[in-house]
């Protein structure tokens, strides 16, 4: 299980490809029904988290049910790019070679090389971000929560149903990244679902704190 695999997974990470072809891992959901029952969905209209799990349940606004939870520091901007901009962006992204990554994803990374154990940064091989993404970074200034934001790393991540692509629950190292991470979802609708963190408080404060510019490329829902 810990040997390199052609699908890009390694260690305990798995995708549908290695689970089916090599009999590794478990394709069952890592989210229990109890956790789903205690989850919240963030509504970008009223900017509150409401009890629920189902995708697009926030579209019932303003007819929410249950008691909401305030979740400051989160901002969802609908239609941040136009359909024409999305098409041009996807075309440009696909002209760049993809690398296989863990859990069924493909990725493209831009940024300096970071050694988190030694807390050192190597910038000599970093020449900048793709020109076709400049308009996105420039547009960040229109979002109040991103005032003064500076990109340290930019990555494109592709998620497909066929590979069971996903990102596992994790804690980011915030030594260099800071406290903000903007994500632009393309090709498919996205829902921000929240579950209560049960680990140590010190770790909880570091969850998803990296200020990376991430493009999440999913499958078009017909």
Shape: globular
Most strands sheet = 5 strands, mixed
Count of β-strands: 11
Distance between the termini: 36 Å
Mean pLDDT: 82
Q: What integer value in Å does the Rg equal?
A: 18 Å
Q: How would you classify the quaternary structure?
A: single chain
Can you list the strand order of the major beta sheet?
A: 4-5-8-11-9
Beta-strand portion reads: 15-25%
Tally of separate domains:
3
Low-confidence stretches: 203-212
Task: Jot down its keywords.
single chain; 222 residues; alpha+beta; five-stranded mixed beta sheet; four-stranded antiparallel beta sheet; oxidoreductase activity; ALKBH4; AlkB-like_sf; Alpha-ketoglutarate-dependent dioxygenase alkB homolog 4; demethylase activity
Summarize the topology.
Layout: H1 16-21, H2 33-37, E1 40-43, E2 48-51, E3 69-70, H3 83-94, E4 99-100, E5 106-110, E6 113-115, E7 120-122, H4 134-139, E8 153-158, E9 183-186, E10 193-194, H5 201-204, E11 212-217
Parallel strand pairs: 8-11, 9-11
Antiparallel strand pairs: 1-2, 1-10, 2-3, 4-5, 5-8, 6-7
Protein name: Alpha-ketoglutarate-dependent dioxygenase alkB homolog 4
Cofactor: Fe(2+)
GO molecular function: demethylase activity; oxidoreductase activity
Summarize the structure.
InterPro entries: AlkB-like_sf (IPR037151), ALKBH4 (IPR032857). The protein is of the alpha+beta class and 222 residues long.
Describe it:
This protein is 15% helix and 18% strand. It is an alpha+beta fold. It folds into 3 domains: 1-28, no CATH class; 31-72, no CATH class; 77-217. The chain has a 5-stranded mixed sheet, with helices on one face. A 4-stranded antiparallel sheet has the order 3-2-1-10, with no helix packed on it. It has a two-stranded antiparallel ribbon with strand order 6-7. Mean pLDDT is 82; it is low at 203-212.
């Amino acid at each position: 299980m810990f040997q390199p695999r052609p699908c890009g997974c390694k260690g305990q990470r798995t995708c549908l490809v290695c689970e089916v072809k090599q009999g590794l891992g478990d394709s069952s959901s890592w989210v229990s029904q109890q956790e789903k029952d205690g989850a919240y969905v963030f509504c970008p209209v009223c900017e509150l988290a409401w009890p629920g799990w189902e995708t697009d349940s926030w579209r019932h606004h303003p007819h929410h049910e249950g008691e909401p939870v305030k979740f400051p520091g989160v901002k969802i901007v609908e239609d941040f790019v136009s359909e024409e901009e999305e098409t041009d962006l996807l075309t440009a992204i696909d002209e760049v070679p993809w690398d296989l990554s863990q859990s069924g994803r493909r990725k493209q990374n831009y940024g300096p090389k970071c050694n988190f154990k030694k807390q050192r940064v190597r910038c000599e091989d970093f020449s900048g971000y793709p020109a076709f993404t400049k308009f996105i970074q420039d547009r960040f200034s229109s979002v109040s929560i991103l005032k003064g934001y500076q990109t340290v790393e930019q990555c494109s991540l592709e998620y497909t149903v066929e590979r069971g692509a996903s990102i596992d629950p994790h804690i980011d190292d915030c030594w260099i990244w800071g406290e903000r991470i903007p994500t632009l979802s393309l090709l498919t609708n996205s829902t921000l679902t929240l579950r209560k963190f049960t680990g140590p408080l010190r770790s909880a404060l570091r969850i998803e704190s990296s200020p990376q510019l991430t493009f999440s490329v999913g499958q078009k829902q017909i």
